[in-house]
Amino acid sequence: MIGASAAFAILWAAVSSLSSEPVPYNVAVAADQVREETPAAEIGSTDASSEITPSLSPEQAELMAGDPDWRASARLYHAGGGGATGNDSLGCRPVAMRTVAVDPRVIPRRTRLFIRETVGLRLADGSIHDGYWYASDTGGAIKGQKIDLFTGHGRGSMAQARRLNMQTLTIEDAGRFDGCPPAWEKASN
Length: 189
Description:
The protein is an alpha+beta fold. The protein contains 2 helices and 8 strands. β1 (29-30) and β2 form a beta hairpin.
């Protein structure tokens, strides 16, 4: 076991070795690590907490480049075990990692959202999030510039998005949707 001063020295050496140049967008940075883009060979990895930077469609690239329509503080919610139950405010079944609860006075319900910080997020099933979400729910505690991201069933479903909890996210208006949010793998289809 090492002492606190030795641990600090190791941490300082690691931080000091980082470049002072700005980090380009296509490099994911977490609070406790700096990591380069995941090689294609590792995309099938079962590590649900990792991220990659996927190739962006022209629509996604345009949404990434523009000024955000909203910035909102995110919270996570789930179904079961004291979490949300039943249908969303449109009467639809919530879709894991797609349904967003909003204050409809700020972000209108039925808005298809593009949340920049979720692009490349590795999901529990191993797929990669494309950044698209659906404003189809509301909540009593969601007032003003706040959103709740629905993660799925049970507390364990929140692990894949835990780094987004209590963060201010950059949100673009990507159009409208009718009916219930689609439950397809890629919402950008």
